[in-house]
Amino acid sequence: MSKCSHSHTQGQTHELIIKDLEVAYRKNTVLEGINLHAYCGTSLALVGPNGAGKSTLLKAIAGLVKQRKGDITWSGENNVRTRGGEFAYLPQHEEVNWDFPITVRGVVEMGRYSQLGPWRRFTKKDDLAVERALALMEMDGELANRQISELSGGQKQRAFIARAVAQEAHVLLLDEPFTGLDRDHTANLTRLLRKLAQENSLVIASHHDVNTLADIFDEVMLLNKRVVACGECQSILSEENLDLTFSNMANV
Amino acid sequence: MSELLEILDMPFFRRALVAAALIGFTNGFVSGFVLLRRSSLTLSALCHTMLPGIVIVVLITGALTQAGAFMGALLAALIVGLGSVAITRNTRLPQSTALAIFFTTAFALGVLLLQYVHTSQNLEEWLFGSILSVSDADLKVFFAIACFTLLSATLFMRPLLLTLFEPNVAAVQGVGVRWMNYLLYALMIFALMASFQAVGPILSIGLLVVPGAIVSLFTNHTRWLFWGGGVVGCVSAILAVIISIPLNIPTGPAIVLVLGTLFILAYFCSPNYSPFKKSQTN
User: Fold this and answer.
1) Is residue A8 scored above 50 in pLDDT?
2) Helix, strand or coil for residue A73?
3) 0.90 surpassed by complex ipTM
4) What class, spelled out in words, does domain B2-267 have in CATH?
């Protein structure tokens, strides 16, 4: 299948390589023949119809689902355990325990646990990372001390993105990060994702709005169980490719 | 009054107080995890599993000893608890369903076997607790359980909270989610084992649920659930033991009744949830 490779500046050691990935839930094949070669300093959108396997691909990269075939390596390592804090993951809302008695700041502080491990105390550096993440998502001030159960959908989303940002991970795996955000916060998150990529993170996010794709992301992977096309946004986003991705024909 | 003081001086009563403090604290502490894990019903199932555990041990050994009953209940709860975890991981069945299958089967087996037990032995005491008859050896067991709970919960508090909040994110952050779930199970089962002596297997779920629920009405901070729950459990159990003597009521039900009463009071006094407060602001 198609191969996604980027001609980025040489000498960057952080690269994510997916080779011939296949994932199945029971007997249902959800993803097959997935290849990807991505470096730190890029943002990549996963685009495709419902059930195309976007969330599953993110989970596979995060090491949350078993792969039937293929190989995912990060910096030459394919052991998920050693990645620790290098990956941050934004789940979809329904998987979170919203009854948890915890404030927004508490949620964002949890992001630091992967750096600190079970025992080390919060240092000034950790507090700064938390404050910075809260400010970036405009969740500072009064909102930071609010219970998560008292937040609106968009605010919950922002709190969780702030948690991922506070983790200061190399790779951000975001499942529909723009869900529930109003206009201003969509613009804000767009700027943030651009900034993170510029600061040498690798951002991979599932996204459903084809019109805003090129404004937010450098690259796009059109996905429908297999990779339909993958590369820089301008060259990939043709009518033909989109038809191929979103028509049922691609499933055959 | 002097009668009460006399009783207070008796060794069996002092042992009962120490036991109540240890058991109440351990269960109250763990009740925070029970609440966050939303597993009250799960534990209720495990409590019922202890009946067949005890009955089978009695049938095998021919006698109802403390150690035997402890082991039987522990084994039964472990088999059902871990068995349901294994089933859940390997099928699409939700854990509540897997557990319901296991525990009803086990409980049915227990009821069926009950008729082969010679009833001359005091089974009722084992089903509803007898904190007034704890021995020094029992106290050592309770102390060990309390130490294990505090130590492991303190050491692994962060990964435990990450797991309880969102297991997928926790796993990506490098937490061994599966081990944390096993640890949570172990904590709950050990807490049950301790309260088993005080209030018996059927009522023990009260000690393991109510303290954390009471504290949660007053706090927005996760950690308070554990320490606050520990204090509430400890004080309630001691209080129940003290009032059960002059009133001449069984201590097991007394402990659960004290907790239940406290919960109702807490509900009406809670700054966030009280129905009175709401009607004032409206």
Assistant:
1) no
2) strand
3) no
4) mainly alpha
User: Residue ranges per domain, chain B?
Assistant: 2-267
Provide residues of A within 8 Å CB-CB of chain B: 59, 62-64, 81, 83-85, 87-91, 95-97, 99-103, 106-107, 110-111, 113-114, 116-119, 147, 163, 167, 173
DSSP-derived pairing of the beta strands A171-174 and A202-206: parallel
Q: How many CB atoms lie within 10 A of CB B187?
A: 22
| DSSP state for residue B91 in the 8-state scheme | S
What are the helix (H) ranges across A63-151?
104-110, 113-116, 124-136
Q: State whether A91 and B166 contact (CB < 8 Å).
A: yes
Give the mean pLDDT of chain B.
85
Confidence of residue A11 (pLDDT cuts 50, 70, 90): very low
Cβ pair B165:A116 closer than 8 A: no
Domain count, chain A: 1
Tell me the pLDDT tens digit for each residue of A219-250: 999 998 888 888 888 888 888 888 888 876 54
pTM across the whole model: 0.83
Whether A5 is in a domain gets the answer no
Sheet of strand A28-39, all strands in order from the earlier edge strand to the far edge: A28-39, A15-25, A69-74
